[in-house]
Specification:
single chain, Aspartate Aminotransferase, domain 2, Aspartate Aminotransferase, domain 1, seven-stranded mixed beta sheet, four-stranded antiparallel beta sheet, binds pyridoxal-5'-phosphate
């Protein structure tokens, strides 16, 4: 039995999802003629109470397009120093949008309205122009942490006062909604653009959506085109996304429950120095000097358990749709044996 906790992107379509894909009605989406893509875009926009959505190949693409929409050359993006858009998108903010980045500190990857306010550049030719704030929820490198909605609301107010746009990297937004009981439509009300991923916890094989206003999404289509991201019979994979929105949202609670159970087990083990707070499906823990993370990952792999190192002495586990109850029992046995 191989247990893979490296990421929630590793899931394979379920038989029911595959069935939905095989029977999808498709057309040429470059001509706007794929009914399944259109249905997915409308469905997602409706869920969030936003005007429109654009289906794209990846969350990197939807984030990059989102930032591009809100900026021009020499502008600045304000975000946490652990943000995916900064750390893990290959420097794309520079090459796609020609912008600089103002990086903020903040507990568990979360920033505050006060941090944002203090980071806004003065109106002075020496400084770049602050244009957009980008939040990430849940925050991957913060250990799957979730924002309090009040803080988001305060950040929104600050953005309004200073004429800044607000973008959300919601690769795992559904995890945050399920964990906190917050509502999708509330998010649609405060963000100018939202990126959601169907290929993370929701278990679709491919795809992300950028949500926003009519004008933004119309422009986004042109930007997607120049990135080589306009596509043809994408309805086959969009069908998986529709299936995921219908069937795989509520069950995220099971992934959260498993992650929390693993956290409790880890707390009792002598090689674990600290287990970071676990709110969703991401669990980060720190090793004592019994192992360094290379040797620990190797040791896990010898037992067919796969995980990622996440900085010195830090290990990340991500629970997901394909991590079953049997995997859970086996994992706990392995962890206790090390
Ligand atoms: C996975 C992820 C993305 C998008 O990644 P792709 O692999 O490009 O789909 C964006 N933001 C966060 C926080 C992520 O975890």
């Amino acid at each position: 039995m191989v247990i893979d906790l490296r990421s929630d992107t590793l899931t394979k379509p379920t038989p029911e999802m595959l069935e939905a894909m095989m029977t999808a009605e498709v057309g040429d989406d470059m001509f706007g003629e794929d009914p399944t893509v259109t249905a997915l875009e409308q469905r997602a926009a409706h869920m969030f109470g936003m005007d429109a959505a654009l289906y794209c190949a990846s969350g990197t693409m939807t984030n990059q397009i989102g930032i591009r929409l809100h900026t021009t050359l020499q502008d600045e993006v304000i975000c946490h120093k652990y943000s995916h858009i900064y750390l893990y998108e290959s420097g794309g903010l520079m090459s796609n949008s020609g912008v600089s980045v103002r990086l903020l500190e903040g507990e568990r990857g979360l920033i505050t309205a006060a941090d944002v306010k203090a980071a806004i550049q003065p109106d002075d030719i020496h400084a770049p122009v602050s244009k957009v704030v980008s939040l990430e929820n849940t925050m991957n490198k913060g250990g799957g942490s979730c924002y309090d909605f009040e803080e988001i609301w305060a950040i929104r107010e600050t953005c309004h006062e200073h004429n800044l746009s607000l973008h959300l990297d919601g690769a795992r937004l559904f995890n945050a909604l399920v964990a906190t009981g917050q509502k999708a439509k509330t998010y649609g009300e405060v963000f100018d653009t939202i990126s959601i991923c169907l290929s993370k916890g929701l278990g679709a094989p491919v795809g992300s959506l950028l949500l926003g206003g009519h004008d933004d999404i119309k422009r986004a289509k042109r930007i997607r085109k120049v990135m080589g991201g306009a596509w043809r019979q994408a309805g086959y994979i969009a069908a998986a996304g529709l299936y995921a929105l219908d069937h795989h949202v509520k069950r995220l609670a099971e992934d959260h429950k498993k992650a929390k159970e693993i956290a409790e087990v880890l707390k009792g083990l002598d090689y674990v120095e600290e287990v970071y707070p676990c709110e969703t499906n991401i669990l980060i823990f720190k090793l004592t000097d019994k192992y360094d993370n290379q040797s620990f990952i190797k040791k896990l792999a010898d037992h067919d358990v796969h995980a990622f190192g996440f900085g010195p002495q830090l290990i990340r586990f991500v629970t997901h749709l394909d991590f079953t109850d049997d995997h859970m029992d086996q994992l706990i046995k392995v962890l206790k044996s090390l």
